[in-house]
Specification:
about 400 residues; alpha+beta; five-stranded antiparallel sheet; 13 helices
């Protein structure tokens, strides 16, 4: 069945992308995946011949397996498509032609009004038993589509797509594991009263790999958690460790963006409206980036205080409460980290390599900054709410 073509063109389920969305879609094709974009279309183009791609597909439906999934900041007119308030949603984009994204595509938001009807028309009547529908709902539960989080979350629910779909560089994995191991070792030594010696590294590896077997029961007992609480809490903890590592990395990445905002000069004719916008948006965008990085740091401090109480004060109460309450902070943190990571990676590709050779026009540059500002409005509004 051709994607979306059987749906009534008057409904929001069959929206053709706007001109600006088409331009953004073409850019996504160039930049592949980021924390806000899972570009299965690019994976298909680059890896369709690989055995891992064929044996362990991300989606079973061949068309859906070429989709582009975006963590989309909802505009005012889109929020009414959902039964409850939310700031972002997961957008499914099915390109008309994966080899030419400038042609555009069709899109729908996961769990918007009418999503179930779309799924029944596309996948068949029994959507509750459809693996692809369940995967879409699982992705919608995440604050970003960062490969680490997607791999962890899907794996917990028994779905393990091929490595080609969720690539994390070996260099990044090594740095992240090294950073996480140090923190986990200290906690394990505290929970096991320092009696485990060198096996603390082994136990830390089990936590990172989600192997929550009998060897970790003393840690579960220390935290006074039931089985389900412990499993969910450890997943949340691994997420926070990852976000803490990404926050450290992002500070250097965002410094490059801030330097670029102050120095980059587009080339070509510029109308008065675009010139005025670029003059106003650069300092405003820089301020929002600084606030967003600081906001992530404040949220991570909640984790640091709870962790310090356990490791240095041998008081498990705050850390236990943190693990139980973590999901609310987990999603807020992941959303902010995802936005900042997207800006950093998009800037690096679109601006870094082309800074001296292929300068953007003022209109193209303004379009990119407008996208950044729209995304950061979520984080900025949260900061303003906290300060009131």
């Amino acid at each position: 069945m051709n994607a979306f073509t059987t749906l009534d063109s008057r409904t929001p389920l069959n929206n053709t992308l706007s001109n600006r969305d088409v331009r953004s879609l073409a850019n996504l094709g160039e930049t592949a995946s980021t924390s806000r974009v899972l570009n299965l279309s690019a994976v298909h183009v680059n890896s369709a011949h690989e055995k891992d791609y064929q044996l362990r597909p991300f989606f079973r439906d061949s068309q859906m397996n070429k989709a582009i999934l975006v963590k989309h900041t909802l505009r005012a007119n889109e929020r009414e498509l959902f039964g409850r308030y939310r700031r972002t949603a997961t957008k499914i984009i099915l390109p008309f032609d994966v080899t030419d994204l400038k042609l555009g595509g069709r899109s729908i938001l996961v769990n918007q009004v009418g999503f179930d009807a779309f799924c029944r028309g596309y996948f068949g009547d029994d959507i509750n038993a459809n693996a692809d529908v369940q995967t879409l709902r699982l992705l919608d539960q995440l604050p970003s589509v960062d490969p680490f989080l997607v791999r962890e979350h899907l794996s917990r629910h028994g779905h393990k797509p091929g490595a080609c779909y969720l690539k994390i560089s070996p260099y990044d994995i090594q740095r992240m594991i090294g950073f996480a191991n140090e923190e986990i070792e200290r906690l394990v030594r505290t929970a096991f009263s320092g009696s485990v010696g060198g096996s603390a590294i082994k136990l830390a590896g089990k936590i990172l790999a989600n192997e929550l077997d009998a060897e970790l029961w003393p840690l579960k007992a220390t935290l006074r958690m039931a089985d389900d609480e412990f499993s969910d809490g450890i997943f949340s903890w691994r997420g926070f460790l990852y976000f803490k590592w990404r926050h450290i990395e992002l500070q250097d990445e965002m410094r490059k963006v801030l330097e670029g905002l102050s120095t980059y000069q587009p080339i070509g004719a510029c109308d008065d409206g675009t010139r005025d916008y670029l003059k106003e948006v650069r300092p405003r965008l820089a301020s929002r980036i600084v606030n967003a990085v600081a906001s992530v740091g404040r949220t991570l401090n909640v984790y640091d205080r709870a962790y310090h109480a356990l490791v240095h004060g041998e008081n498990p109460g705050p850390f236990r409460r943190f693990l139980l309450d973590g999901p609310s902070l987990f999603f807020e943190l992941g959303e902010s980290i995802g936005i900042l990571s997207h800006i950093a990676s998009f800037w690096s590709y679109r601006m870094g390599q082309q800074m001296m050779t292929q300068r953007l026009t003022p209109f193209e540059y303004g379009d990119i900054l407008m996208d950044f500002e729209d995304s950061l409005s979520v984080v900025s509004l949260d900061d303003e709410a906290r300060s009131e």
